[in-house]
Design brief:
single chain, about 950 residues, alpha/beta, Elongation Factor Tu (Ef-tu), domain 3, Rossmann fold, seven-stranded parallel β-sheet, six-stranded antiparallel beta barrel, 33 helices, about 15% strand, globular, binds adenosine-5'-triphosphate, binds zinc ion, 5'-3' DNA helicase activity, DNA-binding protein SMUBP-2, RNA helicase activity
Length: about 950
C-alpha cells in the first residue's frame, strides 16, 4: 500500500498548508480590518439580537439572530454567510477571543435572519434577549477535521467493504468488469448516455462519467442509481455542494426512489425537506416522544432564564442534560431504522462523515458510492464517503472549475487535482465514458467549447442546435435576439479597467454601462430578466454591475463565474473586465473559468471585452476568433454614444480627442512598458494611423463626388476597421450606419440630409481647428505622461472649452454678417418675421419662435441660438451647440429610451438623437418645426439678395 501512504502523507501536509492559509486570511482580516469593513466584506454581521431559541436535532440549540428591527433594520446587510459555515458569536465588545461566547454552525440564512446551531452539550448556553451580538465567519475546521480523519482511516484501512476499491484507485489492481444486459428506465437516453450507464453497471470497482456542460450528467447518474436499486444495491450519493445534492434528491424522488437527505433540514429547499432526516423522523413512530422531549428542553431553558439563583439554575442545567441524553438515544434508534429503509442516502461529501447520522449504520451497509460534481471536490473530501463502499461511480467535468484553494503552493503541489483527473491520468480513457450529446447550447455557442475543451466530440441535440432568443414566447425578433454570439469589442474605446492593485478585484465601469445597455435591449425585446445571467470573473465587477442593475431588475442574476457553475440561462452577458495596455489578463488566464462562463448560455452569449487586451491569452483569443468568425461583432462605440454625454454628432473634435486622449492616458499611466512592448505598440499605432488615413481618403473622395449618396464599405471590414470608419464619419460630421448580421455586417457612410452650406462652412473651419488641436494634443501626449482620466471629467472639461469657443465663433460670425452681409449663413431669427408673411400655416409657430428666447434654453446658458441653435426633439426647445445633446440638458433618459426603441427595432445603435420619436406627445409640433426649418432654409436662399437691402 505504498501509494496510499504516500498519497495520505502528502495530502495531509497540503491540507495543513491550506488550512493555515485560511486561518491566516481570517487573522489578517480580524487584525487589520475594522468590524464595519468586515461587515462590508460580508463576513461579519454586527449588532444582531436574539429572535428566538429552540432545540434542534441532536439536542443542539438553534438560535435565530435578527437585525435590530425596532430600529427599522428589517433585513440583514448583504453577506456571504451560508448553511454549514462555522461562525463565532461575540458580545458587542468586539470579535476577539475574549468576547467570544461560542461557536456554531449556520443552518439557515434568509434576508431577515440567520439561524445558528450551537453544540452546547458541555455547558448550556443562554442568551440575553436584550443584548446585541456580533457574528463572524470563522475558518471552517470541521471540514478539515473530517477530511483528515478520512485520510487517516484510508491509511490504516485493513478490513472493510472498500478494500478492493482502494487498490484500484491507487493503481495496485486493475479495474475489472462484468457485463450484463440492461433494461433502461429512461427510454429517452441517447447513445452516449446508454453507454455510460452500461459501463457504470458493468464495472466492478470504478467508473468515471465525464459530462461536459449540458450533456445530461444528472439524467445519466439518476439512471445509474435506479439500476443499482433494481439490483438491490444500497447507494450513498454525494456531491461537494448542497445545491448539487438537492438537485439529485429532487430528480430521484420524481422517479419514486426511496431517498433520504442528510444535512441541516432548515436550509433545504421546501421540496426537499420532506426527504430530510428530520422530516422523516417527525413522521415516524418515535416522533411524538422526541417532540415532547424537545419541548421539555425548551421549557427548561425558559425556566432557567427566569431563575436568578445559581442553585436553581444548576438544577435546570442537570435536567436539561438528562433530557438531552434521552433525546439522543431515541433519535439514534429512529435514525438507524430510517437509514436502513432508504434505497439512496444523499449528503454532501463532508456530510457523509462518521460523526453524523451515518454512525448509526454498520460499516458495510452501502454497496455503491456515487459522487457527482466530482471534479469540483477535493479528493480528501471524496474519501469520507468512499471508504464506505465496494464500488464508486464518479461523475463530473474536470474541464470546469476545480475547488477553490487559498494556498497557492498547496494548489500547485497537487491539492487542486481532483480524484477524477488523477484517475484519468492513471488509467486513461479506459475508465471513462464521456457524454457527447448536449441539450443546452445553440451549436454556435457549443462549437467553441467543444473544439477547445472536449476534443470536438460534442454534438448539439436537434432540439437546441439552432435555438435563439427570438424563438422564446413573447420575444421579438431583433438583431440581439437572433444571434447566438455577440461580441462587443471595447478595443480602442478607452474603457480601461479600474486601477486596483488587488488581483482578485478588478472593475470596469465602461463595461458595466455597455452591459446595462445590452440588458435593456434584451429586456425591451421581451426577454425576461430571470432568463438572463450577467457573469463577471471579478467580485468588484459583480458589485458594480449589481449596483447598476439590481434595483431595476431584481430577477436578473449577477454572479461571479464560480457562483454560476452548474447553472444555465437562456442568455448570458459576460463582462471580461480586463483592459490595459500591458495585455494583462490575470485571473482570466484560467481556461476552465472561461469555459464555465460561456457554457452557461442556452441561446445567446454576449461577451463584452477589450479584444486587444484579452487576445494576449491563447484561450481567450480562440473565443474572440470564434465569435468574430461565427457571430456578430460590434464595437463599443455603437453603444458609447448612449453612455457618455459626449455625443459627437456635431462636435467633431470631441470624438477624436476622447478616443485618442483616452487611450493615451491609459497607455502612459501604466508606467514604462518594456521597450519591446513599446515598439510593438508603436508599430500597431502606426499601422492604425495608416489604415485610418486610407479610410479617410476614401471618405473624402466620396464627399467630393456629389453624385454618390452613400459609401458602403465591404463586409470584409473588421470591427476595428468599422471603428475607424465610425471615427472618420464622426470627424466629418457624416451619418454612418451598420447593417447586416454576422459575416455580412458592413458599415456605410452618407451625407447628413439637413446639412446646409453654412454648416459645411463651419465644419471646414472646425476641421482645421480639429487638426490643430489634434496636433497639439499629440505633441503633448508624446511629452508628458498623464494621469488616468475618466471619460466623464474629460468630457465635461471639453464641454466647457467647446462652449467658450462656440460662443466666440458665434459672436464673430454675427459681426461678420452685419459687416459684410455676404455670409452664406442660414436664416436667423431676423428672417422669421419675413418668412411668416409668406405662409399662413406657419404663423402660429413663427410667432412662438419669435417670442421664444433667442438664447439657449439650458439653465444659465446665455449663448445665442439664433444662428447655431439645435432643436431637441424630446423637449422641443432650442439649445446652443454645447447643450443640444439630450443627456446634457436633461432629456437623456428620453433619448436613451428612444435610442433603445430603435435598437430593438433595427438592432443597431446610432449616433445622436436619431429619428423623431413618434410616441412623443409634442411630436406634431416638432414635425411642423422641422418643416418650418426647411421652409425657412428655402426662403433664406431666395431672399439672399434682399438681405443686402436691409
Ligand atoms: N436523453 C435526453 N433526451 C432529451 N433531453 C435530455 C436528455 N438527457 C438530458 N436531457 C435534458 O438536458 C438537460 C440537462 O440534463 P441534466 O439535468 O441531466 O443535466 P445536468 O447534469 O443538470 O447538466 P450538466 O450536463 O450540465 O451537468 C435537461 O433539460 C434534460 O431534460
Ligand atoms: Zn431636450
Ligand atoms: Zn447652451
Amino acid at each position: 500500500m505504498m501509494a496510499v501512504e504516500k498519497f495520505v502523507s502528502k495530502t495531509l501536509e497540503l491540507l495543513q498548508e491550506e488550512r493555515e492559509a485560511e486561518i491566516e486570511e481570517t487573522r489578517l482580516w480580524q487584525e487589520n480590518i475594522s468590524l464595519k469593513d468586515l461587515q462590508n466584506k460580508g463576513v461579519c454581521l454586527l449588532k444582531l439580537h436574539i429572535g428566538s431559541q429552540s432545540t434542534g436535532l441532536y439536542g443542539r440549540t438553534v438560535v435565530i439572530l435578527e437585525p435590530r428591527k425596532h430600529l427599522g433594520f428589517l433585513s440583514l446587510p448583504s453577506n456571504s454567510f451560508g448553511p454549514g459555515d462555522i461562525v463565532g458569536l461575540y458580545d458587542t465588545a468586539g470579535c476577539t477571543a475574549d468576547s467570544q461566547i461560542g461557536t456554531g454552525i449556520v443552518t439557515r440564512v434568509s434576508q431577515a435572519s440567520i439561524s445558528v446551531a450551537f453544540d452546547d452539550s458541555k455547558e448550556g448556553l443562554s442568551f440575553d434577549t436584550e443584548a446585541f451580538y456580533n457574528l463572524l465567519k470563522l475558518a471552517n475546521d470541521v471540514t478539515y477535521k473530517r477530511m483528515k480523519r478520512a485520510l487517516n482511516d484510508l491509511n490504516g484501512y485493513s478490513s472493510g467493504p472498500a478494500g478492493n476499491l482502494i487498490n484500484v484507485l491507487f493503481g495496485n489492481t486493475k479495474p475489472s468488469c462484468l457485463s450484463q444486459p440492461i433494461e433502461f428506465f429512461n427510454k429517452n437516453l441517447d447513445d452516449s448516455q446508454r453507454e455510460a450507464v452500461s459501463f457504470a453497471l458493468s464495472q466492478r470497482e470504478l467508473a468515471v462519467i465525464h459530462g461536459p456542460p449540458g450533456t445530461g450528467k444528472t439524467t445519466t447518474v439518476v439512471e445509474i442509481i435506479l439500476q443499482a436499486i433494481k439490483q438491490g444495491q444500497k447507494v450513498l450519493c454525494c456531491a461537494p455542494s448542497n445545491v448539487a445534492v438537492d438537485n439529485l434528491v429532487e430528480r430521484l424522488a420524481q422517479c419514486k426512489a426511496k431517498v433520504l437527505r442528510l444535512g441541516h433540514p432548515a436550509r433545504l429547499l421546501e421540496s426537499i425537506q420532506k426527504h430530510s432526516l428530520d422530516a422523516i423522523i417527525a413522521h415516524s413512530a418515535n416522533a411524538d416522544i422526541i417532540a415532547d422531549i424537545r419541548k421539555d428542553i425548551d421549557k427548561a431553558f425558559v425556566g432557567m432564564k427566569k431563575m436568578g439563583e445559581k442553585g436553581e439554575r444548576t438544577n435546570f442545567k442537570r435536567e436539561i442534560g438528562e433530557l438531552r441524553k434521552e433525546l439522543k438515544t431515541r433519535e439514534a434508534a429512529a435514525i438507524t431504522q430510517i437509514l436502513k429503509r432508504a434505497d439512496v442516502v444523499l449528503s454532501t461529501n463532508t456530510g457523509a462523515c462518521d460523526n453524523g447520522p451515518l454512525k448509526c449504520l454498520p460499516a458495510e451497509h452501502f454497496d455503491w458510492v456515487v459522487i457527482d460534481e466530482c471534479a469540483q471536490a477535493l479528493e480528501s473530501s471524496c474519501w469520507i464517503a468512499l471508504l464506505r463502499a465496494r464500488k464508486c461511480i464518479l461523475a463530473g467535468d474536470y474541464k470546469q472549475l476545480p475547488p477553490t484553494i487559498k494556498s497557492q503552493t498547496a494548489a500547485s503541489r497537487g491539492l487542486s487535482l481532483s480524484l477524477m483527473e488523477r484517475l484519468i491520468q492513471m488509467y486513461g480513457d479506459s475508465v471513462v465514458r464521456m457524454l457527447t450529446v448536449q441539450y443546452r447550447m445553440n451549436s454556435a455557442i457549443m462549437d467553441w467549447a467543444s473544439k477547445e475543451m472536449y476534443q470536438g466530440r460534442l454534438t448539439a441535440h436537434s432540439s437546441v442546435e439552432s435555438h435563439v432568443l427570438k424563438d422564446l414566447p413573447g420575444v421579438a425578433c431583433v438583431e440581439e435576439t437572433s444571434t447566438p454570439l455577440l461580441l462587443i469589442d471595447t478595443a480602442g474605446c478607452g474603457l480601461n479597467e479600474m486601477e486596483v492593485s488587488d488581483e482578485q478585484s478588478k472593475g470596469n465601469e465602461g463595461e458595466v454601462d455597455i452591459v446595462e445597455l445590452h440588458i435593456k435591449a434584451l429586456i425591451e425585446a421581451g426577454l425576461k430578466a430571470k432568463d438572463i445571467a450577467v457573469i463577471a470573473p471579478y467580485n468588484l465587477q459583480v458589485d458594480l454591475l449589481r449596483q447598476k442593475l439590481s434595483a431595476r431588475h431584481p430577477e436578473l442574476e449577477i454572479k461571479s463565474v464560480d457562483g454560476f457553475q452548474g447553472r444555465e440561462k437562456e442568455a448570458v452577458v459576460l463582462s471580461l473586465v480586463r483592459s490595459n495596455r500591458k495585455g494583462e489578463v490575470g485571473f482570466l488566464a484560467e481556461d476552465r473559468r472561461i469555459n464555465v462562463a460561456v457554457t452557461r448560455a442556452r441561446r445567446h452569449i454576449a461577451v463584452v471585452c477589450d479584444t486587444q487586451t484579452v487576445k494576449n491569452h491563447t484561450f481567450l483569443k480562440s473565443l474572440v476568433d470564434h465569435m468574430t468568425k461565427f457571430g456578430e461583432v460590434r464595437t463599443a462605440f455603437e453603444y458609447i454614444h448612449d453612455i457618455a454625454p459626449q455625443n459627437y454628432t456635431r462636435d467633431h473634435k470631441e470624438t477624436k480627442a476622447s478616443s485618442s486622449a483616452g487611450s493615451s492616458s491609459k497607455q502612459k499611466a501604466k508606467g514604462q512598458p518594456p521597450s519591446k512592448v513599446k515598439q510593438e505598440q508603436q508599430k500597431q499605432k502606426k499601422a492604425q494611423k495608416v489604415r485610418r488615413n486610407e479610410i479617410r481618403e476614401q471618405v473624402e473622395r466620396f464627399l467630393e463626388d456629389l453624385r454618390r449618396s452613400e459609401l458602403q464599405f465591404p463586409s470584409s471590414f473588421t470591427s476595428h476597421d468599422r471603428l475607424l470608419v465610425h471615427q472618420v464619419a464622426e470627424e466629418l460630421g457624416l451619418v454612418h450606419e451598420s447593417r447586416g448580421e454576422g459575416k455580412d455586417r458592413c458599415i456605410s457612410v452618407s451625407r447628413p440630409q439637413e446639412i446646409t452650406e453654412a454648416e459645411q462652412l463651419t465644419q471646414e473651419e472646425e476641421k482645421t481647428e480639429a487638426h490643430e488641436e489634434e496636433k497639439l494634443q499629440n505633441s503633448q501626449k508624446e511629452l508628458q505622461s498623464q494621469p488616468p482620466l475618466d471619460l466623464k471629467s474629460l468630457h465635461l472639461e471639453r464641454m466647457k472649452r467647446e462652449q467658450q469657443k462656440r460662443e466666440e465663433n458665434a459672436r464673430q460670425r454675427n459681426l461678420h454678417i452685419s459687416a459684410s452681409g455676404k455670409s452664406k449663413m442660414k436664416s436667423g431669427a431676423c428672417d422669421i418675421a419675413t418668412a411668416a408673411a409668406l405662409d399662413d400655416d406657419f404663423d402660429v409657430l413663427i410667432n412662438a419662435v419669435k417670442k421664444a428666447d433667442s438664447v439657449c434654453s439650458f439653465v444659465k446658458c446665455k449663448a445665442s441660438v439664433l444662428t447655431l441653435g439645435q432643436l431637441c426633439l424630446f423637449c422641443n426647445r432650442q439649445y446652443c451647440l454645447s447643450h443640444h445633446i439630450p443627456e446634457v440638458h436633461g432629456c437623456g433618459d428620453k433619448a436613451k429610451s428612444h435610442a433603445r426603441m430603435r435598437i430593438s427595432r433595427e438592432g443597431v445603435l446610432y449616433a445622436g438623437s436619431g429619428k423623431k420619436d413618434m410616441s412623443m406627445d409634442p411630436s406634431k409640433k416638432a414635425h411642423l418645426q422641422r418643416k418650418l426649418d426647411s421652409k425657412l432654409k428655402d426662403m433664406a436662399s431666395q431672399r439672399k439678395p434682399k438681405k443686402e437691402d436691409r
